[in-house]
Amino acid sequence: MGNDIRGALRSLNEQRREIYVFALSVLVFGLLLYLLPAPLVEICLLIGILGFAYHIFLTYFEDYTTNLKMSVIPIWVPFFVLSLSLSFMYMMKYNYSIPQIVVFSALLVVFFYFWFIIPAAWYQKHINKSSSGKRSPSSTLSILVPAYNEEEYIGRCLDSLKDSQYPIPKEIIVIDDGSEDNTYDVAQNHATNNVKIIQQSNGGKHSALNAGLEQATGDVIVTVDADSVITETALVQIVADLEADANIGAVAGTVKLLRVQSHVEKLQALEYALGINTFRRAFAVLGFVNVVPGCLGCYRRTALESVGGFDGDTMTEDFDVTIKLLKSGWNVQASDALVYTDAPRTWRTLYRQRIRWNWGNIETLTKHRDLLWDKRVNNLTGILIPYQIISLFVMPFATIVILWTIISQLAMGNILYVATMLAIFTLLQMIASLFALVLDENDVLLCIYAPLVVVVYKHIIDAIIIKSLLDILLQKDLKWTQSRDHSPDNSKTPDSTRNKTNTSTIDMEAEND
Description:
Layout: H1 2-35, H2 38-64, H3 76-93, H4 98-131, E1 141-147, H5 154-163, E2 170-177, H6 183-190, E3 195-200, H7 205-215, E4 220-223, E5 229-230, H8 234-243, E6 248-257, H9 263-286, E7 297-300, H10 301-306, H11 317-327, E8 331-341, H12 347-367, H13 379-411, H14 415-439, H15 450-473
Parallel strand pairs: 1-2, 1-4, 2-3, 6-8
Antiparallel strand pairs: 4-7, 5-8, 6-7
Helix pairs in contact: 1-14, 2-3, 2-4, 4-9, 4-13, 4-14, 5-6, 9-14, 11-12, 12-13, 12-15, 13-15, 14-15
Protein name: Cellulose synthase/poly-beta-1,6-N-acetylglucosamine synthase-like glycosyltransferase
GO molecular function: glycosyltransferase activity
Keywords: Glycosyltransferase, Membrane, Transferase, Transmembrane, Transmembrane helix
């Protein structure tokens, strides 16, 4: 009874926080629209209306004429060209300079985030919260834990899996992928009757997952990285979300950082809340979550087997299998089921991690390049794929243009103009960060790092993406390096995991932006 009351009070406080932050966001965004030039506001509203119409069009034809043949041109191209043309015409009509056009274009991106992403993420969060907890999963469950040289982390992971609640006995399968350390022995020491440990020659993560899939007996497959920790309710939540609809082929867990102490870690924690988790919730409204993370993913076995399991031809097998499921017609949803993992603590290890992620993303998009010219009209080809392309191939270079504009304006002595624009973007970033952190039930004080995201962090991440693209164009080989730059410490895991083992710092191999 006491726990129920505390839970109700906590939920009420969370709702109040969301209402306050939502009201503040509306106020600041409305004030910005009031202060901005009327033509720019008109452009924002016009593109917003076009965006809604575009989504309605995709939904209508996806429901009624899935195989509608439009032309050799993807459906998203005309919308993109129309939006750019209207924006350019408006700006030319009012004789805006090139720097003004650059700044206003950046504001359009921010407008898109406030107009579409935040409301969709908020809606999904509350729909998911209202429906979860009322269902008790009934499917048989197998949990796959691929492991390679994870002696420092596998014990902690297994303890969290054993402690996580599930209404019927669960099967845990550890696949030791040719480890050269004591991973197998440590896993044996933490094993119980429901834990099976198999060994194989090193074949990569995809090979380990497929080997585990062959041994699994459950109708539902959950994958967990050996260096991650799940909460006590994670399995119940994520499987219940999978069972909510027979068309759901996979469900993505919510990733948070286990250790948030250094500045680099705090910037990444804000990035996860503001970018990865918020966008994942927004895409879940469409049923097209772009990545099921390797640290916590849930799959309907029939769906996973129907696409041939996990492939080894990309570095991001989680992104690849998600795209395969979406192409096959399965919905992919998001869950509030929590998994905790550590992030790189230094810029050097962050660089290594993001290089690998970027290479894997590019490999996966190249592998599925047929989606670029897919004539089907749906949210996958009309929204998700264009978003991935623009994020990876357009936005990093747009950052270069923005930096050039700032430098040129400073050189011309327009210091006040630059300072005003930076202040506006920083304010918007802080409001968006605050809303995302509240939505993610995270530490709201992380929003003080929003200025660093605007001024430093985003440009570093974009520079790494550009470096990855150049490496591929120059046909450089990616030298495999681990991102771990430290050994486990003795800090405690978050209280929500109720895990008594020591924490450690690991690299998040399978999460994508």
